[in-house]
Amino acid sequence: MSTMTSTLSRRRGGIAVQIALAALVTVYLWLFLQAQSQIEVGVLLVVGAAAVVLAGRLGLNRRIETAARTSPRAGTWCALVGALALIVAFYDVHYVLLMICTVLLFATACLGLTVQFGYVGVANFAGAAFFGIGSYTIAVLSTHTGIPHLLLIVVSGLVSAAIGSILILPVLRTRGHYAALVTIAFGILFRTFVEVNPVLGGPQGLRLPGISMFGYAFSDGLELFDQDVSFYVPYALLSLAIFGAAFAVIKSLERSWIGLSMDVVRTDETAAATFGIHIARWKVVAFMLGNFLAGVAGSVYGMMTGFVSPDNFTFSDSLLLVSIAVLGGLGNPLGLVPAAFIVLVLPQKLQFIQEYRFLFYAVVVIAILLFRPDGLLPRKTRLFFGKEVSR
Amino acid sequence: MNARKPLVQVEGLTMRFGGLTALDDLSLDIREGEVLGLLGPNGSGKTTFFNVLTGIYRASAGTIRFNDQVLSGLRPQEIYRAGIARTFQRSRLSLSLTVFDNIVIGDYQHLQHGLIFNLFRRSAFRAEYERAVEQVRQLLAIFSPPLLDRLFEPVGAFSMIDRRRIEVCRALMSRPQLLLLDEPSAGMTHDETHALMDDILEVRGKLKNLTIVLIEHEMNVIERITGRCIVFSYGRKIADGTYAEITADPVVQTAYLGEAA
Question: What is the three-class DSSP state of A367?
Answer without folding.
Answer: helix
